Amino acid sequence: MYLGVDYYPEHWPKEMMDEDILGIKKMHSNIVRIGEFAWHLMEPKEGNYDFSFFDEAIEKLKNQDINVMFGTPTATFPAWLAKKYPTILSEDEDGTVRSFGGRRQYCYNSSVYREFSARITENLVKHYENEQAIIAWQIDNEIGHEGSDMCYCKTCHEEFHLFLENKYENIDTLNREYGTIFWGQTYNHFNEVPMPTKTITTHNPSLKLDWARFRSFSLNRFTKEQTDIVRKYKGEHQFVTTNIAGGFFSKWFDHEETVKDMDFVSYDNYPVWGGLTEPIPPAEIAMTHDFNRGLLNKNYWIVEELMGAQGHDIIGYLPRPNQAKMWSYQAFAHGCTDMLYFRWRGMTKGAEQYCYGIVGHDNNYGRRYKEVQNVFSDIRNYEEVLKSEIKSDIAVLYDYENIWSWNFQQQSSGFDFKNELMRLYTPFYKLNTHIDVVPVSRDFSDYKVLLVPALQIIDEALAERFRLFAENGGTVIFTFRTGIKDHNNNIYLKQALPGFVKDITGVEIHEIEALSAEQIVPVVGSGQFEGVRSTCSVWRDIITPVTAETLFTYEDPFYSEAALTKNSYGKGTVYYVGGGIEEDVLTEIAKTIVENQQVDHIRSEDGLEVYNRVIDKKVYYFLMNHTAETKSFDSTTLQPYESKIVCRN
Ligand code: GAL
Known about the structure:
The chain is an alpha/beta fold and 649 residues long. The protein has three domains: 3-155 and 220-386, TIM Barrel; 394-596, Class I glutamine amidotransferase (GATase) domain (Rossmann fold, 3-Layer(aba) Sandwich), CATH 3.40.50.880; 608-648, no CATH class. 31% of the residues lie in helices and 21% in strands. The protein contains 18 helices and 25 strands. The strands form four sheets. Strands 10, 11, 12, 13, 14, 15, 16, 17, 18, 19 and 20 form an eleven-stranded mixed β-sheet that branches. The chain has a nine-stranded parallel β-sheet with strand order 5-4-3-2-1-9-8-7-6. A three-stranded antiparallel β-sheet has the order 21-22-25. Helix 11 (323-333) packs parallel to helix 12 (367-379). The longest helix is centred in the middle third of the chain and has 29 residues, at 205-233. The structure holds beta-D-galactopyranose. Beta-D-galactopyranose (GAL) is lined by residues 141-142, 245, 268, 304, 310, 342, 352, 355.
């Protein structure tokens, strides 16, 4: 089991290396991550490769039995490269060239950048191929993060034309699929197709979706080139990974594709960040772990775990004593097997002087140091538990093309894909169930429950998979706007909504209304929910039940139709949630579902997360108190923000 820190030995006077490595060792670490921003140090001038600084650091680390994860340095290129080849710099939508000075301001399609990146990575990996201390390579750093997945430069435009030509072969096909007859946008040649940059009103929806696919293709091609080089030259004992940043659903690349050639996924877990006055909700942090575990369907690493306050120009919330430790336990519960904290020391210079490390600027080995030391010494006792496989009965399904479609055409000012996903995830999270967050392309036939938020793009083949799932006894919850679109981002012609899943949902939708996040329509229950009152925001589908039973209707003098329905299909049950219905209603539905489907769940006090892991018939309960109050679970008491693992036979 690897536990350690992100260490930047190049940031400090060389004389401090011994002292730092000793401090890292005494914290019970056995790994550091190094190198991911040090391209200039390794290639100070074009073609002059020099790894001597890291050779020395690695020797010192080895003397203390500390292993190394080495980051390929392509996230920060040297100034000489940008000066000599300015075309490597990416461009904003309005044509502003991103200047040298930040990070990741390169264009994934620049052949010059791809060539120089290939060379530095090849030289670096070859140099350390036989280095036993290096046990893993990290590709780039948080690829595509901070807006770096978008670029509108000339090279991108030309590459986009090639991408389209490859896809459609014939411009008439593109015209037909896009429906360019609308507003007279018919193209004679691929090279006439614009990028969706600023214009009057808005661009064609099919064009926008193809642009998103092209962005994803560009980033993933770069990642694959880098991964292939590392794989070709690395030692057999070395793994390959990349660190996934948060905010997955607002990114323009398909993450599953990004990691598909990796040995394991690494995630950077930041429950708070600059400007946030409180952490993101516990359910959302949990979901990010389930998402990362879902990428390769196996347990994963965390290579940046927060311990201190963080921020670039604005700093955020300071984790309360033991709170960051509790977030680490939450990560371990959800499938993290190995963990590195960001970062060893707070840097006094440079853009991240406000990213507080384990050791303070003042050299204080205080609360943060002790908390990490504590995590490391405790968690080693549970190595086998952490490595055990997590089985889930529930899956939340997402699809990047669908998310991109939403991100381009929000339809309601209150819509946010992540919020809609959380609307379904949270009630089941609060029942302490195991949930996988996985792409819709994954085989989902073995789950008992599928949560399907706002999945607009559904074709016949996917509908058939849902049909089989329900027929065989599964429960599905669909939400509003399900099945309205095809893969070109176009609305189905002559199809009553929700399109291909109309029969299994047992409803039809002929009228819709976009609400805002604040705009509220009351809803009232019937049948099992007789007299229950709640509200709906963001959106409402005005539902006409065909075979479905109505559970809630809108309280509205004009459109008092169904808001939430339940249909029996085969041996299964299919719910349709017509709008942004409040958590109280969905919680009741979740309770019914876990009982009926016999999904393993655990009742706990509000704010106390319980996640069980089973190994050799022993049950390990990871208990995480996310609140500032004392909580208890059976006979175990947890102080504010405390976390514990208790074992029952
Ligand atoms: C991460 C990033 C690190 C550092 C850190 C600051 O997103 O990978 O390099 O910037 O945030 O908290």
